[in-house]
Amino acid sequence: MDRKDKKGTASVSDAATELSRRDFLEGTGAALVVAGTTPAIASAEGRAATATTPAQQAPPVPTTAITLTVNGTRRSVQVEDRWTLNELLRDHLGLTGSKIGCDRGECGACTVLLDGVPAYSCSTLAVWADGRSVQTVEGLESDGEISVLQQAFMDHNAPQCGFCTPGQLMSATALLERNPSPSAQQVRQALAGNLCRCSNYNAIVEAVMAAAGTSAPGGSI
Amino acid sequence: MKTLANRNARTLQEAVQLAQAARQAGQSVSFAGGGTDLLQLVKDRIPNRPGSGAPDVLVNLKTIPGMDAVAVGRGGALTVGGLVSLSALAADAWVRERFTAVAEAAESVGTPQIRNVGTVAGNLVQRPWCWYYRNGFPCYKAGGDRCFSAGGENQLHAIFGGGPSYIVHPSDLAPALVAMGASFRVVGPGGERTMPAADFFVLPRVDVEHENVLADDEVLASVEIPPPDAGTRSTYRKIMDREAWTHATVSAAVLLDMDGDVCREARIVLGGVAPVPWRVPEVERLLAGQRITPELASGVAATAVADARPLAKNAYKVPLTRGVIERTLMALAG
Amino acid sequence: MSPQQEAQIRPMDTVGRDTPRIDAYERVTGRAEYTRDITVPGMLYARVLRSPHPHARIRSIDTSRAEALPGVRAVITHETHQIVYGSGSIAGGRQYSDAAKDITVHKRYMFDNPVKHVGQPVAAVAATDRYIAEEALELIDIDWEELPFVLDVEEALQPDAPRIWPEGNLGLDARNEPRASGGVSGDPEAGFGAADRVFTDRYTTAFVQDAQMEPRSALAWWEGDKLVLHTPTQGISNCRHDNAKDLGLEDHQVQVICKYMGGGFGDKNGSYYFDLIAATLSKEADAPVLVELTRKDDWLGTHGRWHTVQDLEVGVTADGTVTAIRLQAHSGMGPYLRRSGGLSGINAYACPNVERTIYPVHTNRMVSGNFRGPSEPQGYFPIQSMMDGIAYELGMDPVDFALKNMLRPTDQIRFTNYTLDECIERGRDLFDWSSRWRPQPGSDPGPIKRGSGMSFMMFRAGIGASSAVLRVDAEGQYTLFVGVTDIGPGAKTTMAMLAAEELGVPLGRVDVVWGDTDRCPYSVGESGSRTTMMTGFAVIEAARDLKGQMAARGMPRGDDVLIASATPNPNTAGMRRMCFAAHFVEVEADVQLGHVRVTKYVAVHESGRILNPRPARDQIRGAAIQGIGQALHEELLYDPRNGQPLTAGYYGARHVTHLDVPEVEVTFVQTDDGYGPYGAKTVGEAGIILGPSAVANAIYNAIGVRMKSLPITRQRILEALA
Q1: ∠C290-A110-A121 over CA atoms, to 5°?
Q2: In what order do the strands lie in the sheet with C510-514?
Q3: If you count residue pairs, one on B and one on C, with CB atoms under 8 Å apart, how many are there?
């Protein structure tokens, strides 16, 4: 929800998005096929996979019930075995902060923390996250307060277009957890798996160093 | 992705049985370790085993307890479970100190995210990164009938051991483990077998479709590395097109067993230059019993590439390989 | 600059002060909604089928199996819909030339037959989920007639080359005539005659994909006869107009919304064919449709910087004065002439005798288009390399040669202001050129050698028309309506800062409404580095108008508002308005292993008054790093035997990571020439222009061998030194 919409100029898409993020399970699942343009609204936790008309029977898609912790909350979900963790997060749990940049483990935009370590959510299956914990960019804030690192990103202009930003934040968060005072080179090594095409690399490193309480040279104006 | 079914194995034997059962039911099946490379092949519908399409069944090995252990045995031999992550291997202090080339090789792979999930076995059995194979060309490695790099764009391809396929083996762990005399334990329908690491990998002229001896439904279960002699130092030097996230253009795993400043024994295994980790025994013989001087390093490096057979577009790999050997020897010899 | 001029460029109340970006919070919390983050009820997912062939005719296409797949709602092909994709060819888009688009004979369609490059779209499917859509693509049966293809720009102009168009492979201009661009100024023949030495050389530059992090998508649905379109565009106004035109609608029947987009480096200031695909599928399926391009789709199916082959001839006198320059170049445009194929760089030199012939050539590679400084880096690299080499030949320091030959104001050539010499001098000092430059290239002992190079430029900072609307309510809260999307430079923030400055109010009193054509006025769009200069100027004008209204009528009361709108169209009365820069680079080159590392990078820029220091600095730093990527890594390799691209994607193109990049040191020389918003000039594109040439000149200084082909890879260095 865009903060700037506080004056009530929310667009159609904002309202629809509110609805969809909470309740709506669409986009995958060959078995849930409906005739009209308004599909049945189903909860993210478990749904009946039924074909609605004989002509639209598809072979059943293998699914598995899993339980995982997402941003500190236990979630029980029925996942299709083929879903990547990224698809579970974005399409079914409404957590669209993690991005798809390439879906091939070549860019880092989908980086989440899997049991506390950075991983490409596009390159692991949801079903393999059973019993594990996942942290996304949405989980960096607590009680409505953003993290020191997020604030540092804002202060140091670390996002340009912002698309790589969630992934950079996750890798940097894990780094500062295990090494609260990294050198600039250590920051670069920890974030080596996060591309930024805007190439805002210098500012991102400065932001991480600032969050760590140390400072990086460079960037004279 | 095409629809697929995940089956969690609880033991290695069960994993093998699940694979066999799927195959007997007419399904295509793949073992899944970290899955970081496998999933990309699945998404692009590139066969992981020649002749197989996108897998119907994935047998998940991550649910087998004990596969991800690093253990030091009697006498200091290192046993590394196939599902040990690359980052765990790189971070292990014992590995770093005694089996340095292995730790450095593990650390050189991909990115932190890949290393956190990618496994030892996965790195060793990963399919080639030849751009023809990865772009879906119907080549030998995909079960087809030709090699497109032959007579084509072969800038990144083999200068040793190539033909009829000219891929280079993509694993960084492979040269390091061969150099350190590791042995691999394979588990499959026929039981268990163990072999020297060097024997795990196969040349295209022996088997053009596969890079290693794994049969259908076999799993690389663990790797054992004998304890190096005191006075052994090792390193893994990797040359890439950028500073991370890329396979080796040329790499060298070098192990020197030093007695003072005399090299008792040397082992050099090259990556990025051949379809298998490439040993250079004639160079190792020249180094045995010698002080490693700049002249000797330069000389043996030239010997190492003397019978290189570059292709039309990868001749630069010859001086590059020579340079890597010379520089790594000098740096390691101190 | 004089002390008085320096005094003028102190920070103002808001402008010139470090200001965090308005939407930084949304971007760091995952709240920013990019196109694929939006879900609407009943949304279908679409995939695009692409040509596997470089050149082929579709004899027949049978979609019956795809249509029969449960979950498939619509399938479209060139047979079902013949929709011109107007902005995809011949200077397309309203911002460039509507008239040119109208008359071109080389029309580009949403789906074309024959297809002319691997990756060109041929059909699309909308289904209830993306897996079904993917599967349906496999069920479309096409009978292909493969045609001969051509990939090489010089081969393509040979008489026996396979014809991509009936008229041949030389691009048509806006009058449908195959024509090279360029021209003659002065008297080149006389110039060469007057030279003591004439140098000739050939340079080549590779294709470079824009490769923004967000793979493209389009979400479309219809509300009656009105199209609502979410798409990652750099210009909502142009996008709306282009799509309306192609779909046979009026502008007001199309609403384009883009609040956040993941990177725009060119050629997104308008529509794209997947907007049309989404709109068409949505109409067919009577449901919202999200078209998602995979990264490979995006790589091969959009565009990148044109690759070139350039032959240069330069005449100099013994004292180092350039007397004549001749350029003959071939620019590889792909099968559709989306942009000009032009080349800049020679214009930075004072030499009055210039002949340029630039052939925009059609090939069966993917389409070329604009990428940040569309004609610049690949134009500057050859001529700056050549001049650098000539300096050494004459025994001159390249900096002295540059100062001697760069274009300066004359009686005929007037600038609104001019600081190129200052940029070069400052750079030389900051970089410590005299210590870092090796008078003898390649002279460092041992295999690891350092060297330094520099290059300089001037780049258009033109002003022109754009719009802004500004509103104030009874509480004294201002709302600024501007049609920007903020591709990364922080346009929303800059526009708000300009309004706040002109209004004399704190920044917090200004809200910005952006990214929606239903709510925002025309914007020239965020390309060509024009948003700050053109839309920004409109913001100031609107603020002045509003202040006038408030003065005349007092503040509004109750629910009343005051509104001012402005669409100024200023000009510089015949003077050139340019931004200036000099880049100084040091590299460390390992001649045994072929490795190159940039060890120091100093960028001195004059871009007028800097409105918001941090984002401006980061625009330069980021662009310079893109220049390094172009210099050392990026290209798209095709196999000439089969016309197939082999290195599409971030892995294949070896994009630079955190570990590959130096710290870029940026210094702004600030000025106010009396034009633009408070004297602000172009920033967005300026930083990329000199990367390849400065890096290449540094490599020469380090290794003593001139690298004439981009990218300068390890392989090429080792081959050059062998």
Answers
A1: 105
A2: C510-514, C478-482, C468-472, C562-566
A3: 70
Instruction: Please give the pLDDT value at position C8.
Output: 65
Question: B: neighbours with 3+ CB pairs under 8 Å?
Answer: A, C
Is the Cβ of C133 closer than 8 Å to some Cβ of chain A?
Answer: no
Q: Let me know if A205 is exposed, middle or buried by CB neighbors in 10 A (0-12, 13-18, 19+).
A: buried
Please report residues of A whose CB lies closer than 8 A to that of B62: 128
| Interior/surface letters C505-529, b for 16+ CB within 10 angstroms, e for the rest | bebebbbbbbbbbebbbbbbbbbbb
Q: Are B283 and B265 in contact (CB under 8 A)?
A: no
φ and ψ at residue B156, rounded to 5 degrees: -105, 10
**Domains (range + CATH), chain C:** 3-32+464-566 (3.30.365.10), 35-149+217-292 (3.90.1170.50), 304-462+574-721 (3.30.365.10)
Could you tell me the CA-to-CA distances from C201 to C189, C314, C442, C527, C707 in Å, in that order? Answer: 18, 9, 21, 33, 11
How does C55-79 read in b/e, with b if 16+ C-beta sit within 10 Å? bbebeebebeebeebbbbbbbbbbe
Structure tokens at A179: 């090494």
CA distance A74 to chain B (A): 20
Query: What interhelical angle do C398-405 and C420-431 show, nearest 10?
Result: 170
Residues lower than pLDDT 50 in chain C = 1, 3-4
- Per residue in A40-93, pLDDT (tens digit) is 333 333 333 333 344 445 678 999 999 999 999 999 999 999 999 999 999 999
Q: Is A61 on the interface with B (CB under 8 A)?
A: yes
Give the three-state DSSP class for B117: helix
Separation in Å, CA of A151 to nearest CA in chain C: 8
Nearest-CA distance A184 → chain C (Å): 10
Rounded Cα gap, residues C356 and C328, in angstroms: 6
Domains of chain A with CATH codes? 3-52 (no CATH), 63-139 (3.10.20.30), 148-211 (1.10.150.120)
Interface test with C, best of A160, A173, A183 (most C CBs within 10 A): A160
In this complex, do C639 and B319 lie within 8 Å of one another by their Cβ atoms?
no
Output the pLDDT for position A51: 36
Predicted pLDDT at C535? 87
Distance CA A49, CA C675 (A): 64
3-state secondary structure of C144: strand
- Nearest Cβ partner for B117 among A59, A81, A119: A119
For chain B, list residues with pLDDT below 50: none
**A117 to B116: CB separation less than 8 angstroms, yes or no:** yes
Q: How much is the pLDDT for A50?
A: 36
Amino acid identity of B228? P
Q: List Cα–Cα distances, B115 to A117, B106, B178, C301, C661, in angstroms.
A: 10, 8, 20, 32, 22
What pLDDT is stored for residue C117 in this prediction? 98
Cis preceding-peptide flag for B164 (omega within 30 of 0): yes
